[in-house]
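[DERIVE STRUCTURE TOKENS]
===
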Amino acid sequence: MRVLLTFFLLLAGAVGAPAQQQWTLTEITDGSVPAEIVADSRELAIDVYSGALPDGRIATIANTDDVASAWYSEPTGRYTHGVLGDAIEAGALKIKTPRGETKTFRLPRTEVFEDLTPRLADLDDDGRTEIITILSSVTQGASLAIFGVSGNALVKQAQSSFIGRSNRWLNIAETGNFTKSFTPEIALVKTPHIGGTLQFYKYQSGNLILIVSARSFSNHVIGSTELRLSTQTDLDGNGSADLVIPSADRRSLLVLGFTSTGLIELARVAMPAAIDKAIGVEGSGSSTRFLVGLEDGKIYAVHR
């Protein structure tokens, strides 16, 4: 059985004049979508590497000269925040090169990687791979930290400021070309459980540059290991990525895009319950369909 619900939203037109559009929510009850909505095909690091973070996964990237894979290791209980369901975080970041060499970056005892899986991308179009992580101070909370290979070592290349107090976290949403520039941006939500602030960063000349910030978003349920409450698509057909992310209460699905005037809301769709699972996306433009799982156990396809 498929149950239809209809909501209305404002979609920004090509000249910035909003036009009313209709979206439909179709409940999926035939088992065609997995309970986690988007299956995570990345290998568990502990199944491959001794000493890996037990619930962490291995990030991989193809056709690079410096990094082939990355994962977190050296589990530690020195930070008891437990935002990801337990008080075990990672004390080290490891990578494997295409030649099979392993390199390690080990944090001091005052810091942890409060994360599950690193992200890999060339953020500055220099042909080298950056490793994108969530690095937390046990007294100052979380930060965004970028690592890379320099010479024969794995090094920290850039870091945002810590949030400023213990037990304050951020969750990386997506890395993509949101602004139509030559290099991608990193989107994250700072304090996603406390009126979360969405931020977009650019990595340039060895620095992290904050390009825009907006309030009232969330991409995580406290205590959950599911960090993928976001995705990206090209909803407005302008050739750049648009960010798909929940509102602060996770009861609305939002699509955000950049225009010449800055960050704008392309879509807002009210949901019958709070979003708590990975968000799936199929198609683009007018054929876009989102797959959304809610706290009440129901799964919906959101489509026009």
Notes: The radius of gyration is 19 Å. Residues 1-40+169-304 form one domain. The chain has two domains: 1-40+169-304, 42-167. The CA atoms of residues 78 and 109 lie 7 Å apart.
